[in-house]
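Hey L., structure's done. Input below.
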Amino acid sequence: MQKREKQLLGVMAVVLVVGGYMYFAPPGKPAPGAAASGASKVVVDEVAKNMDKARLTPQQSYRLGLLTDNATGDPFYGGQGGISLEDDRSLGGAGGAGPEFVFSGYMKVGNKLYAVINGVEYAIGDELAEGDYRVQGIDKNFVVLERTDGSTGRKLTRRVPLVEDDTDKIRIRVVKKR
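Output:
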């Protein structure tokens, strides 16, 4: 047996002895000088004070509520249908101060997709005529728009659902010839 093998076996034996002592030894006494009830009361008071300092603002609790409502069991979910900061009505959108967008359909020309937003065709990456938004993704049921907030520099996304108009539908009737 080589010298390093003997050293390794020695270290393993010491670890086993210490582990056995820790496992089979009776539980230890509390640290000297610390009264169990007095120390725990101080800790509880300190934790309660820190919890009062760390209260959530209404906007933080709203966002946390959005996260819990839209949570998925898959931690690697990367769908475009997720939540965004733009869901807050104060940032624009339906009922907000931002521009109103109507996604009325899409078309595929070759390998390129175009979304029809407010009557104008846009491809992925194109900037919209109003609102400083850029088309981020096109799906058959919605389009994802993104813009950069000038004050914070954060990217804000907005999901605009497909709006179908009944007046544009073509009605075909089949008549049997007798």
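The beta strands are 103-109, 112-117, 120-123, 134-138, 142-148, 155-161. Residues 18 and 41 are 34 Å apart (CA to CA).

-- N.
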